[in-house]
Amino acid sequence: MLRGKRVVLRPLTPLDFTQWREVRTRNHDWVTKWEPSRPAGSPDVVNDRHAFASRCNARERERHLGSGYGFGVFVDGAFGGEMNLSSVQRGPFQNCYVGYWIDEALAGQSYTPESLAVVLKFGFEDLGLHRMQISIIPRNSASRRVVEKLDIRCEGVAVRYLEINGAWEDHMRFAMTAEEWDERRDEIVRAWIL
């Protein structure tokens, strides 16, 4: 369990299905336009409790393998979104990718940048990563605002980088390294975590 000033991040469990489903259903249009298409024939985790439990179990396996760390974002004890570290790579890269989404009803209240600050601290200080990356579709101004609030460095645009909602989309690539974290740690922790 990870904590910020106002958020708690913890792995989702099958017991979170009802809250998760309500938020995802209510936010369908807000969220799915920024996500990869669900492959044909794959289970619908939003409407199938067993598929959601399998998703939670898969995330738990990733944690045990050290290849990914998925967190639900909770505000005042209620589920409000997700913050995920995926594709954790060791060896000479020591890198991961960060993805996130938040309930539209909570957007604009800085819960997501706070959650991202918590996850950056976890990634650099607990996991010992050297680099954490976030890729954002340029027109997704809400997601861009998250990295702007934390002043995370933009490295440019990757052309047709990921398939999102049926189309190959360009992505702005943002990153922070352990050296940058060391330089800015106190400022970020003071502003967002303590």
Can you put this structure into words, describing what you see?
The chain has 194 residues and is an alpha+beta fold. The protein has one domain (2-193): Gcn5-related N-acetyltransferase (GNAT) (Aminopeptidase). Helices cover 38% and strands 32% of the residues. It has six helices and eight strands. An eight-stranded mixed beta sheet has the order 1-2-3-4-5-6-8-7, with helices on both faces. Helix 4 packs across helix 6 (178-193). It is globular and about 45 Å long. The mean pLDDT is 96.
CATH topology: Aminopeptidase
In helices, the fraction of residues equals 25-40%
Which band does the percent of strand residues land in?
25-35%
User: SS-based structural class?
Assistant: alpha+beta
| Annotation field: number of helices | 6
Average pLDDT score: 96
Low-confidence stretches: none
Rg for CA atoms: 16 Å
Number of strands: 8
Q: What's the CATH H-level homologous superfamily?
A: Gcn5-related N-acetyltransferase (GNAT)
Largest sheet: 8 strands, mixed
What is the H-and-E element order? EEHHHEEEHEHEEH
CATH class: Alpha Beta
| CATH architecture assignment name | 3-Layer(aba) Sandwich
